[in-house]
Each structure stands twice: as C-alpha cells, then as structure tokens.
Amino acid sequence: MRTPPGQALTKKWPVLHFGAAPHIEIATWELRVFGLCENPYTLNWEEFLQLPQIDVKCDIHCVTHWSRLDNVFRGIPTKILIDLAKPTSDAKFVMQHAASEPNDDFTVNVPLDEFTQDDCVLAYLHDGEPLEKDHGYPVRGIVPQLYFWKGAKWITGIELRATDSPGFWELNGYHMHGNPWTEERYAW
Length: 188
Fold this sequence. Notes:
Elements: E1 8-9, E2 30-35, E3 41-44, H1 45-49, E4 54-61, E5 66-77, H2 78-85, E6 93-98, E7 106-111, H3 112-115, E8 121-126, E9 129-130, E10 140-142, E11 155-161, H4 168-171
Parallel strand pairs: 1-5, 2-11
Antiparallel strand pairs: 2-3, 4-5, 5-8, 6-7, 6-11, 8-9, 8-10
C-alpha cells in the first residue's frame, strides 16, 4: 500500500501555503548553508546547477489528507549539499530557511539523518518542468518519507543545528516530526 492512513489520492497538485508566494529573481537567488559546519558556503543559481543532480520518483503526502503518486523531481541531493559543508559531529538537525511574504522568516525543521536520505533533494523541476511559483519556484526541499510540508518551498538556506527547534508550521500546531505513516499531523 502506497497511501498512508487518512489520505485521499489526487491527480492534481493542490496549492497550500501561508501568505503570498514570494517573487524570486534567479539572478539574485542564493542558497546559504551554515551553522554547525566547518565549511559554510553560499551558492548562486549557476553554481547550484553545476552540482550533481538526480531524478527522484516519489509519492507526496500532504498533512491536509491528500496524496499524489509518481512525482518525478530533479534536483541536487541534500546529502551532497550537507557533505560540502562538512557538518560538525554535534550537528543533528537542519532548519530550512525560505523566502516568504510578508516576512522572510519561514522555516522548516527536519532531523539531519532524514534530510540526507538518498531520495532527498532540493528540487527545481517537477515532472520535467520548472517548479511553478506556488509550488516553490525556483527550489524546494523534497523529503519523501515525511509529510510534504517538511520540504521548504522557496528555500534559501540550510542551517545545521545541534538541537531541534520548531519551524513555522510546528509553531502553529503541526507535529515536530511529520511521519505520514503514523499520522504525525498535529502537535496535540
């Protein structure tokens, strides 16, 4: 069975986010990797695309009870991005930082060992097409083993941390972990 409990299949890709989708210019977009690491760095768009890329075929499961099967995302493996930073031994979590409107304070927390699984990427293509603005253009995190909110849309930073801390949705009642197979939807 490929659909977790409580989910309904859809062929559409519903758009769900808080606030307006930010306007991001490729010419000024950057990805910053920082925190508990020996080699913090920043990549621009061209540098990002020069890194090794993979296609990941995965199912996505939204906390709002929909699932979409057989998505193909192309992107940079998160493991490569993290390895380039050379995390220190006390780095156990990542906080994804994302552009957002009206504020630039949208964050998503994920355990480091789950963020660096072989099927986790920072994706810029979905089913062969650039991501749409409402789906995270130009780049979004893909962490297939967790609910879809655990991959930040409009990602601009990855912070390596020793401790877990709630991101935007967790501060607003969502579960700290987000496993769809055990229905870790909400904090209560």
